[in-house]
């Protein structure tokens, strides 16, 4: 049975707290696991969340600030210690190659696994699998940063009433799907497009074109909301978003499920992020993330 869910490993921003680990997010997408922004302590959070090194197929780093990447050393060494049998691909800004190399070889260990490096240097597609395309878009932060977007190809939904009207049943249903027409009846006459699911991951950034492009039409948007709206000037200065800004992006992009995360340690009431997001006009499903939370990706429309 396919599983599509977000496993939240950490939700703090620059400074972890008693209740929030540094960043870390695992997206389970059918049989694959995509680890985003493994900050310090991610390996231990994986253990607490029941996530194994064998579950990982890709690692996507948005940028090389420590709260988004210091966990790479431990995660990579655990992958090798556990002798993960499949290839794992790492995506990260090409401009941070020296940081990736330092983290990958931070200490001595025995390499047993092929970790393929696929750095990002421009907007566009990074990889394609049987069930998704992985794209990147540049963000606006003091160091080069990219957000990631996963798009499932569109499929077809067969319409029973139209099939019945044309007398198509049994093996002929599969035949018209494969061949595109049957006895003068086109596939479009008995089916409709089933839109593929879309997921986006947006971390440290100011508002910019990349944020809107990543969020557009998403079923789930995981996005930083480091600051509350009253501290918007701080957010702009440091290259971050507020809860209200993130919510307006989701509202304007038609996002179905908004996941707010990456919270400054200065705030003690997580409910205020939800209140400000709602005040900004977002009416979809909303989650203010906490560590070790599991959030299902919404079912297809």
User: What characteristic shape results from the CA principal axes?
Assistant: globular
Largest sheet strand order: 6-5-4-3-2-1-18
> Approximately how much helix is present in the residues?
25-40%
H/E series: EEEHEHHEHEEEEEHHEEEEHEHHEHEE
| End-to-end distance | 19 Å
Low-confidence stretches: none
The overall pLDDT, averaged over residues, is: 96
Sheet-strand content, in percent, reads 25-35%
Task: Tell me the major beta sheet.
Answer: 7 strands, mixed
Number of helices: 10
How many E strands? 18
Write up what this structure looks like:
This protein has 301 residues and is α/β, with parallel strands linked by helices. 26% of the residues lie in helices and 26% in strands. It contains 10 helices and 18 strands. The chain has helices spanning 42-49, 66-69, 72-81, 97-104, 160-165, 171-179, 209-215, 232-238, 243-253, 271-279, and strands at residues 4-10, 24-29, 32-36, 58-60, 88-91, 115-117, 124-128, 133-138, 146-151, 155-158, 181-182, 185-186, 191-194, 198-202, 220-224, 257-261, 285-288, 294-296. It has a 7-stranded mixed beta sheet with strand order 6-5-4-3-2-1-18. A 7-stranded mixed beta sheet has the order 7-8-9-14-15-16-17. Helix 9 packs across helix 10 (271-279). The radius of gyration is 21 Å and the shape is globular. The model has no long low-confidence stretch (mean pLDDT 96).
